[in-house]
Amino acid sequence: MNEPILDVTINFELTNGNGAGKRKNRRQQTKQEACIELKKAFGREPPKIRGYRVVLRIDRILGPRQVLWDSGNILAGNAKQLIDALVSVGIITDDNNKYVTEPVLSGQIHDNRRIGPATRIRIWREKDAMNSTLKELR
């Protein structure tokens, strides 16, 4: 795949939702924590990715003593609040299908635990991602 238009690692721990309640105030608090970390990463002016659809990939970076999640747990947890934070700080316009083709929790990185727990966010223009995928298939 081509180089992403955004590639950032933030100090935000993805959770799998096991044992966590679905209380609205906790979800809001998690979103606010993600907003704070995004603002720290970009300073006063985060990048604005506007005017086209994007492909969004989120990677979980494991910390010491953390274990890989099984495949079913990858779909649960607080990734939604992280995506909402991308909207709140103005990096992406919205997280609906008009602007984001497919937000995906794409991996668990366990070979760099000294920087974890953390989260890597990568964004590509849909057109660039699709062109790269077609080249890989040839």
Number of strands: 4
Helix content: 25-40%
Estimated radius of gyration: 15 Å
Order of secondary-structure elements: EHEHEEH
Strand content: 15-25%
What would you call the shape? globular
Decide which structural class fits the backbone.
Answer: alpha+beta
Widest beta sheet: strand line-up: 1-4-2-3
**Total count of helical runs of at least 4 residues:** 3
How many strands, what sense, and barrel or not for the largest sheet? Answer: 4 strands, mixed
- Parts with pLDDT < 50 across at least 5 consecutive residues: none
Name the average pLDDT.
83
Distance between the termini: 13 Å
What would you note in describing this structure?
- With 138 residues, the protein is an alpha+beta fold.
- Helices cover 30% and strands 20% of the residues.
- The protein has 3 helices and 4 strands.
- The protein has helices at residues 24-42, 79-88, 126-137; strands at 6-10, 54-61, 104-109, 118-125.
- Strands 1-4-2-3 form a 4-stranded mixed β-sheet.
- Helix 1 (24-42) crosses helix 2.
- The radius of gyration is 15 Å and the shape is globular.
- The model has no long low-confidence stretch (mean pLDDT 83).
Q: Descriptors for this entry?
A:
138 residues, alpha+beta, 20% strand, globular
